[in-house]
Each structure stands twice: as structure tokens, then as C-alpha cells.
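On clarity, I found the account of how folds are encoded harder to follow than it need be. Since the whole study asks how a given chain folds, the encoding of that fold should be made plain. For illustration, here is how one protein appears when written out as sequence plus C-alpha cells:
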Amino acid sequence: MSHKPTPYSPNFPPGQGYMSPMEREKQNESYPMNPQGGYPGPPPNQMPQPGPALPPGAQPLPGMPPGFQPGYQVGFQPGYQPGYQPGFTPGYPHPQSGYPAPVMQQPAPQGPPGGWMTIPRGLSNCPPGLEYLSMIDQLLVHQKVELLESFVGFETNNKYTVKNNIGQKVYFAVEDNDCCTRNCCGPMRPFEMKIFDNFQNEVIHLHRPLACDSCWCPCWLQSMEVSAPPGTVIGSIEQEWSICKPCYVIKNSAGDIVLRIKGPLCTYSICGNVEFNVYSKDGDTKVGKITKQWSGLAREVFTDADYFGITLPMDLDVRIKAVLLGACFLIDFMFFEKSRNHEQDGPGML
């Protein structure tokens, strides 16, 4: 006698809420088990339209309606590019919500590192290294503070940083002298000064011979020779004999006078600037100036690290601009260089 397995059902009366698993599963079903006829399909205007015919010999993919091409999407016209919107250039991503607008202006190129000025290009008949001066009408000359010289009084080689009017470095100048000459001759010492550019190339060389600075001696006055590049003389600064005011002439390589410099009656000033005006060769038209700037009480009293400003015409020859830069160093040594922490009295002091 065979027995047919039957599901286990405890002997609970239906009134207590018991229900078999099969009956509970059927009760939870909320959809018809069998599809009914007459189920509406998609509207006619949304029916997929057959695309262009397949190429000769091509076979449609399984499940693809007749006439469809592989990769063709329903609802798009032939030649449509996904992601493309009218009004935007093909290949350029159109702006999307939530993203910043594209940058239409590229950032300006940065200058050389270290705060140096960018060298101008495309200049002809210009000594190498003087291209920087072609676009400059103002120079700032800052002398470096030497701690050994400030506290001990031991004279060291002077160092200067030359900048343009926006604070970019143009040159770096270093005095080349021996210890005995610096400490024995003081501000009257002869020296060689080398001026370097950003690439550590010596572009200007200054030579100051030993001479007298007394206004009572008209035969052996101060002078300085300027070379650019080193070995090629481009001009000179020569002191003219004067009792009341310091006077200089700026000469070109041929020895012709190009500019004149006239200083003040007194070169000592408290909390103020001292100006040496630059005139044309006839001495009537003022074209620029060399200014000893007040650098603060502590710096003026305890050091000889001075600040200078040079104002000159923009269209002036770069060679004469370099000579005026040399004149600034000569004026610094003659009037504002200290000897054993005491201000030096120049020929303009009475």
C-alpha cells in the first residue's frame, strides 16, 4: 500500500487564525496569474520605426527588428551625436549644471623665479645684458646690510640689488676689492665693481681709480669708467671742479658730453631725501635725478646701507642709462659711505 506524502498541518481550528503556507502565499499575490487578452500595447506614434536598410550581406542581430542597423538607437535621426546640443561646437563639451564655466582667458605667463625681471627680446645694436634697461625709466638701488661692518666697523665689500619700479630684480652689483684697500682708504678707495644679471653673467663693469675729492684741488678729481660688456668702454663719469655744489658730466664712449649732474649745496639731510638732478648737456633742461632716499633712523645711524632712486628718460640710450647707474655708485661712495661708522664729508659739504 503506497502512501502519498502530505504537507504537515497541525490540528488547529481555522478560527484561531492559522493558515497553511500555500494558502498564505496565494493570499499575498495581488496580480493575475494568467495574462488576460486584449492587453493594450504602446501607442502607434511611439512604435519603433524601422531604420535604414542593412548593408548588403549584413545579418541583423538576434532580437533586432527588421531593417535595423547595429548601433542604431530608436528615436534618433541618422548622423545624430549623443551629447550634442545645437549652438555648441562639435567636440567641445557643452556646459552642464553644477560645473563652473570654462576659462576663456588663459593666465599670463609667469616671470623668471626669484622675482627677476623678464629680459626684453628683439633689440638690435644693444650690448648683451643691457636689454633690461630699454624698458626702464626708474631704477631702485638698495645696498645690502653687512652685520660685521655695522657692529665691528670692519669695512667689507659693498653689495647692491638693482630693481625696477615694480620691485623686480634687474641686476646684482658686488664690489671687488682687497681688505687692505677697503680699510685703509675708506670711502676714497679705488675699486672694481661687477654688475651681474639673472644668469650670473657680468654685464657691466665699473672702474674707479684713486683720486682726490677736495674742492680745493681742481687737478685730480673723481672719475669712473663704465664698460659693457667688460672690456668695452661705453662711457664715463667725471667730476667737474666746483666750490659750492658737486657737479659731474656724463660722457659717451667717444668722450662727448651727453648729460650733466648737479648736486645740492648740502648733502646731509635728516628725515628727507637728497637729490642730484640730471640735466641735458647744456645744463638747462632737467631730464632726471638721482635721489638718496631716507631709509629710516636706525638704518641711517648704524649702517651705511643706503637706498637710491634713479629717474631717467625712457628713450635714453641704454649705454647712457648704464653710465648713470655707475654715477649712482660713485655718488654713494663720495657722500654717503661711512668711515668707521662716521658719515664721510664730501666736496659738497662746507
About this structure: The helical segments are 21-28, 147-151, 179-185, 297-302, 318-336. Residues 345-350 have pLDDT under 50 and may be disordered. The radius of gyration is 45 Å.
